[in-house]
Design brief:
Blueprint lengths: L2 E5 L6 H7 L2 H9 L4 E5 L16 E5 L6 H6 L2 E5 L2 H9 L4 E5 L8 H10 L4 E4 L3 H7 L13 H12 L3
Parallel strand pairs: 1-2, 1-4, 2-3, 4-5, 5-6
Helix pairs in contact: 2-6, 5-7
């Protein structure tokens, strides 16, 4: 069953959950062949019920000890732009669409997403462009992130955030 896994990590990002479960986004996902939507909603107020979605099989939870199995089963991961969530999805070798929370102050998420996009490791958008991005995305352009090199990722983060 073709699956989309959405994660917000330990944060609250209701706007992403609300947008990805909107009728328009669900229709785009169905049109693209996805049948199942799994949501990790973190501390957010939104926790959609399984029966709230007629187009896709919907599952939602707040937290688990590990989301590795959810990522492994996913055909597409949609994530907030937290470094940990990005690294986990890229490490799992999954196509990744990062949704930057443009409402955060001093937002380093955009810098990280831009750099990873420049290197063709992921696609990114904001909540306001999510549906259009889902409609037009070409996952075939994505390149794997080199595995097992935490020092390279640390250096990459330093570069993306302008630390070094």
């Amino acid at each position: 069953m073709k699956t989309v896994f959405v994660t917000v990590g330990t944060t609250s990002f209701d706007e992403l959950i609300d947008r990805v479960t909107s009728a328009e986004a669900l229709q785009v996902l169905k049109t693209r062949g996805y049948e199942r939507l799994v949501l990790q909603v973190g501390r957010g107020a939104s926790l959609p019920a399984a029966d709230s979605c007629a187009l896709l099989r919907l599952e939602a939870f707040r937290f688990k000890d590990s989301i590795a199995e959810d990522m492994r089963q996913a055909d597409l991961v949609i994530s907030h732009a937290g470094a940990g969530s990005c690294l986990e999805a890229l490490g799992a070798g999954k196509p990744l669409l990062v949704v930057v929370n443009d409402k955060l102050m001093n937002n380093h998420q955009l810098e990280l997403a831009r750099q990873l996009r420049t290197d063709n490791h992921l696609l990114y958008c904001t909540c306001s462009t999510l549906t259009e991005t889902l409609r037009n995305m070409d996952l075939s352009v994505l390149q794997p992130f080199p595995p097992g090199q935490p020092k390279n990722f640390a250096n990459f983060l330093d570069k993306a955030l302008g630390v070094k």
